[in-house]
Structure formats: structure tokens, C-alpha cells
């Protein structure tokens, strides 16, 4: 592997697991395997981890291409249990969707509000 002039040969024998891609699935798998005592090499071609779960700026505009809404976050619900099981629940911040209109679409002069 070469980066910034540093060369290192990576062999499968050095790692119990090699994960390609640091999207939500790759990060989750890496975390679970590492907590189980496995050595993990997580490879990502982008300079920011997170895959479709991160935002970026282009020409002064912010784009969030992937995850917008996450459900089942209530106490005892599956997504909440997943985040607690991963030990990251307290590191995440979520906001409730506006029940009367969380999504707004404008077509010409018309506005459509989508309720929760």
C-alpha cells in the first residue's frame, strides 16, 4: 500500500479481517469484530469515513446524499437496541421529525408538505 511516499505490504496473515469500505456496514462490522478480539484492517478510498452517511460541500452548498431519516429509535426498538449494543448510542444525536411536515417539496408555485 502506498500513501504519502510510505510503502507497506499488507498481507492477509497480519489481519484476521480486511473490510473494504467505511460506510455504515463496514464501520459496524469493524467495530463488532474488533470488540470480539479480532484484528481488523478497514480500507477506504475516500478521505472521510462514513460512505453515504456523511455530508459534503460543493460550491458553497451542503449536500447530504444518503441517510436522512432513521426510524425505530424509541426505547426498546430495534435501531435503538443496535446502537446500544454497539456502544455508540450516547455518541449519537437525533432530532424528532416535525409530525405535521418533515419533508417539503416545491413544484412551481405549489408546496407539498409530507407529514410524519
UniProtKB/TrEMBL annotation:
Top-level taxon: Bacteria
Residues of the signal sequence?
A: none
Segments spanning the bilayer are: none
Keyword list (alphabetical) reads: FAD, Flavoprotein, NAD, NADP, Signal
Q: Which InterPro entries match?
A: FAD/NAD-bd_sf, Retinol_saturase
Listed SUPFAM superfamilies: Nucleotide-binding domain (SSF51971)
| Name of the protein in question | FAD-dependent oxidoreductase
Amino acid at each position: 500500500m502506498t500513501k504519502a511516499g510510505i510503502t507497506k505490504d499488507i498481507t492477509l496473515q497480519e489481519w484476521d479481517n480486511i473490510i473494504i469500505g467505511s460506510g455504515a456496514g463496514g464501520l459496524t462490522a469493524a467495530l463488532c469484530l474488533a470488540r470480539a478480539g479480532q484484528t481488523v484492517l478497514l480500507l477506504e478510498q475516500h478521505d472521510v469515513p462514513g460512505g453515504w452517511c456523511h455530508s459534503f460541500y460543493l460550491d458553497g452548498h451542503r449536500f447530504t446524499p444518503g441517510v436522512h431519516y432513521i426510524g425505530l429509535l424509541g426505547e426498546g426498538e430495534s435501531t435503538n437496541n443496535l446502537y446500544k449494543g454497539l456502544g455508540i448510542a450516547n455518541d449519537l444525536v437525533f432530532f424528532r421529525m416535525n409530525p405535521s411536515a418533515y419533508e417539503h417539496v416545491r413544484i412551481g408555485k405549489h408546496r407539498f408538505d409530507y407529514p410524519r
